[in-house]
Amino acid sequence: MIFSNATEYAIRGLSELAGRGVNGPVMLDELVAGTDLPRDFLAKIFQKLVRAGILKSAKGRGGGFTLAKPQHDVTLIDIVEAIEGPQLLDACVVGLEKCNDTMPCAQHDLYKPIRQRLKDYLRTTTLADLAASLRSKQAWRKMHEDIIVDTPAGSSNNK
Fold first, then answer.
1. pLDDT digits over 127-150, tens only?
2. What is the pLDDT of residue 65?
3. Distance CA 91, CA 71 (A)
4. Which structural domains are found in the chain, ordered by start?
5. Taking a C-beta distance cutoff of 8 angstroms, is the pair 118, 96 a contact?
């Protein structure tokens, strides 16, 4: 993918959390069970998402992670920017420090429309969309059948 491992794990971890549709906090050990998500790395990533206002966390008995806002209000761009920073998608595709419309690299004009489509996708795709997609996958449903709460796509348990 085009994102760092941290961003990919953030998207996967949040998708897993949203896809379960569980009311209340989910412990990290429960969230990563049955997945290949690295628990300790995801813990660090989730703390970053807490600081960004995407997640809430609570310690102790009954603790865990919950979304800080409804699934349909969290976009992929929110997640990417929380992990990578806001300038990631504006960086030069070939890594030049100074690349813009007035000083373009060799790939600038070719990549510019791709970058815009990617930004549009990230701005319009929400956790609710990802959760609905996960829930539609038979293998995922089978793996999580004992914990899935059927909720309409786009609904949130944090209202």
1. 999 999 887 876 656 665 655 554
2. 94
3. 28
4. 5-85+127-144 (1.10.10.10)
5. no
Tokens read off for 65? 């992670």
Encode pLDDT of 24-59 as tens digits: 899 999 999 888 899 999 999 999 999 999 999 998
Q: What is the largest CA-CA distance in the chain?
A: 57
Please name the amino acid found at residue 133: S
E strand or H helix at 111, and its extent? helix 108-124
| Nearest alpha carbon to residue 54 among 104, 13, 5, 114 | 13
CB 57 within 8 A of CB 17: no
Q: What is the CA radius of gyration of the chain?
A: 17
Q: Provide the residue type at 44 as one letter.
A: K
